[in-house]
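Following up on my earlier thread - several people asked me to post the actual chain instead of describing it. Fair enough. Here it is, all 489 residues.
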Amino acid sequence: MAAQELAYRTLDGTNAALPWAAIGSLRNIRGGISFSGDVGYETARHVWNAMVDTRPALVAHCLSSEDVRIAVRFAAANRMLLAVRGGGHHIAGNAVAEGALVIDLSGMRSVRVDRGHRTARIGGGALLGDVDQETQSFGLATPLGINSTTGLGGLCLGGGFGWLTRRYGLTIDNLQSADVVTADGEVHYATQNHDPDLFWAIRGGGGNFGVVTSFELLLHPVGPLVHSAMIGFPLTDGVRVLRAWRDFTKRAPDGLSVWAVLRKAPPLPFLPSEDHGTDMIILVAMYAGDAAAGPRFTAPLVEIGGARGYFSGAQPYTQFQKSFDPMLTPGARNYWKTNEFEDLSDSALDAILYGARLNPSPECEVFIGQLGGAMARVPIQATAYAGRSTRYVMNVHGRWRDPAEDGNVRSWAKALYRVTTPYATGGGYVNFLSADDSDRVAMAYGPNYARLRELKQRFDPQNLFRMNHNIVPISVGPTLEAARGSAHR
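Reply from S.P.:
Thanks for posting it. Predicted structure:
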């Protein structure tokens, strides 16, 4: 192709080119555009999962809804493959794509708290740490995830759960309004009463329906200190420990969340040095209430007996929200498999333990998050998110550095997923689905999938927003869906 042309990938999966003069409208984007070799381009094309290494055609660095409108209209007019980057943290790496136009929202990280109404207006590129830092200045918080470098946009659009979910619901349960740029380049103000179909769809439907440039989230009194606890047990005692943990979580109040992490122990200060690097179960708990009352709720976890060490005490909520950051830094190769459970039978726990004992890498882990509580009291038809009956979510987190280990770690994750599937709901949390999990999308949305396809047809009939766990419009046949798949390869 001639040097004076912009080469790109089309929605049909073919290669095309435009003369440089044809990109004039993109020059109006306030944040600018970048191409291969530019510093902004290189930063934007690298995402959290080091297995993803693609070269977009160009990056639009958007600072406003108007910037996003320009980029969306340009992509649509030229049938150009389009990707949207918020935090760039999703395991599937859909924030970027080979030959695509990438809408980069990383310049839109503002967080503005309305203390009187207990809400926050948050930019589409904000990270969870941005939100926690600003809202905690007022002693407030909203349910978010467990890693401060995760993007709010992707987390929220997929549902969003974490340590506050059992008490205050999912992130989407706290979404009050959103500014959404749809495939026609128009900006919609979506609320429960204004554009309610779009508002329903973005609460769990992922990035299928447009680019959200601003979120308004409800806030709750949290912190500034919260009570937390970590207790480490040898994996050899896993049967007894996991069954005791399961039975305890069934009785736990909504304010208490206890997750189980099965991995080779990192050098945690409360564990003896001889346990570092050994296979362990670490129970992690947080009480979302008065920090002084927390110890009486977490004390029974220590009473399980056989712990190699534990920590229990009050700490700033913002600090607790970063507890997992050291184990989730960017730059590693990552592959996940996930299952959801309404209950964990003895056989299900045995299957998880079987897989955990075969852990192939010091950075691999299996975590089981405890859900339920407030999120389970929302009707399944109220939002696009369909996993309301889920009480436990398992994520098999393959994480490693050497590409030579790709096959080994991926095989381990897939095997653990398979042995636990007979006990699972069949659904899946879309924020945990890997690039090769597209066959699980319909099951993830369950009874809401048919309505989502109808709304996709209404808001994005050409499937412009396909770099996601794609909900295919009713009119789109296998050709375009196959083209979307080819973009991953």
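The CA atoms of residues 180 and 188 lie 5 Å apart. That should answer part of your original question.
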